[in-house]
Amino acid sequence: MTREYVNYHKHTHYSNVITLDCVVKPKDYIERTKELGHTTYVSLEHGTTGNVFEAHALCQANDLTLVIGTEGYFVPNRHEKDRRNFHIVLLAVNENGRRAINKAISIANTDGYYYKARIDEEILFDLPGNDVMVTTACCGGISNLDEEFLVRCSKHFKYFFLEIQAHEDITQVNFNKKILDLHKRYNIPMIHGNDSHYIKPEDSKYRTLFLNAKGMYYPEESNFVLDFPSYDEILERYRRQGVISEEQATQALDNTLIIKTFTQNINKEIKMPRISKDANKELKEIIKQKWNEEKKKIPKEKHREYIEGIQYEMDIIQKTKMEEYFLLDYKVVKDAIENYNCVITRTGRGSAPSFYITKLLGLTDLDRFDAPVTLYPTRFMSIERILETRSLPDIDINVADRKPLINATKDLLGEDGCHWLLTYKPMQKSSGFRMWCKAIGKHIDEYNEIAKNIDDYVDDPYWKDIIEDSKVFVGVIESMSPSPCSFLLLDTPISEEVGLIKVKDEICCVLDGYYCDAYKYLKND
Length: 525
Fold this sequence. Notes:
Blueprint: H1 26-35, E1 40-43, H2 52-61, E2 65-74, E3 86-92, H3 95-111, E4 113-114, E5 116-119, H4 121-124, E6 132-135, H5 147-156, E7 160-164, H6 170-186, E8 190-192, H7 204-213, H8 231-241, H9 246-254, H10 279-294, H11 303-319, H12 323-340, E9 344-349, H13 356-360, H14 377-380, H15 383-389, E10 396-399, H16 402-413, E11 418-426, H17 429-439, H18 444-452, H19 464-469, E12 477-489, H20 494-497, E13 500-503, E14 506-512, H21 513-518, E15 522-524
Helix pairs in contact: 7-17, 8-9, 10-12, 12-16, 17-18
C-alpha cells in the first residue's frame, strides 16, 4: 500500500456557492480517501467552511477523522474596496481553532464583504496561533505578498507552511522556484497541496463541461491536473516538474501528517439554549398562573380532566428535560406580540396543539379537551421518542411576518443567537440534463421539451445515453438561498459555533434544516 499523506487542499461542489468550480461531492472524496488507505478527511471550501455536518456524518460512517478548514480570501484591509485578493488556507487544530475560523469567516461575511467575503490582517492575526494551521495556498495565495508578512505569519502561527504543488505547468514551476527560495532563506517548512477538484485525471472533463455550461473558464489552470493522486504519483510528478527534489517533496508530503493529530468536537448532543436559572420552576409557575386564568372559562366538572391532562403533559416535559424549549417559545411569542405587534395564527400547524400546555402558553387556540376529534398528546411528544432518538419537539408557529418573531428571539438570545438557516440548491434530473445538453453544445430547442418529460425518454434510442451521462450533474450544488421559514436558535454565538455566510441580502448560518435536525440544534419554523 502506498504511503499516507493528508489531502487537505481540495474542494467539493459546496465551493460552488461562492465560486462555480466543481462537480465532485464529499462522498466521492471519502471513497478515494479510503481507497488510498488514508484515515483523515479535510473539509475545505472556497470562502466558507462548507457543509461540515455532512462531512462529519460521512466520516463517522466511514471511520475517518474530520478536520475543518477553509480557503479564504485575504486582503490587507477588509474595509478598502479592492477586488484583488489572495488565497489562504486555514485549518482547525482543535475545537478552539474551529470556533476561531468560524468567527473569522463570519466577520469576513458581515464586515469584510466586497464581491467576496474577505479576511484581513486584523482578522488573521487575531486567530490563536497554536490553534489554527495556515498555508500560503495556491499560485494565487498569500506568498505573493511581501516577505515581511510571511515571516510575521511564521512567527504567529505554530503551524505555518509554504504550499507547493506538483503541477507541471510553467506557472507552477516558476511558483515552486519562488517558494523554494523563500523556504531556504527563512527556514519556513514546505507542505504539499493538491488543490483537488476531481478524483481521477480523466474526471477533469466533467468539471470542464460544467464550467463551459456556466460560461466559466480558468485559463491559468488549463494545464493543471487537479485530481486526488497517491503519494507515489505525487513524487513522480515532482520528478517530472524538476524543481523540488525527492527529499524535499517527501518532507512536504510528510508534513501533511501533522493534520492527523488535529481534533474537533462536533457531536449530536441536544443543543438547547439555556434561558433560565430554574426552567422547571419558572415554567410550572407560568402554567399555574395561566391555568388559574383559563379555568374560569371551563365548567368546574371538567377541571379534574384538565388538571390531570396538564400533569400528564408536564411529566413528559420534565422527564425529557424540555422545560427550556417551552419556556423559550412562550417568552419569544409573548415579546413578539407585546413589543413588535406580531400577528400569530393561533390554530398552529403540526401536532403541537395536541398538548394543552401549548394553549396555556399562547402558542395555539386549540383546546385538545374540547376538540371535535381526539388529539393525543404523545403524537406531539413522548418520553420514549425524545429520549431514544435524542430528538427535539417541534412547535410550528404561523406568523404573517417573521421579523417580529426574529426580533423577539434576539431580545432573548442576543443578536448572534438567532440566524436564518440556509437551503442548498442541487440540480435535479431535469436541470442536470439541461446543463449537460448545454455543455455538449446542443441548442435549447433540441432538449427543452425532453427535459420537461425526461422520464419518458430514459429508453429512447437517441436520448437514453445522454440522460445517463447527465447524471454526473444530478445532485450537484449550484447555489443556495435563505431558508424560507426556519432559523437557528442558540445561547452561544452562532458566528463561532456554526459560522455565518452572506446569502443574497441576508446573513445566514452555515447550516441547513436537515443537518440542523440531525445534529440536534434548535430551530424555529
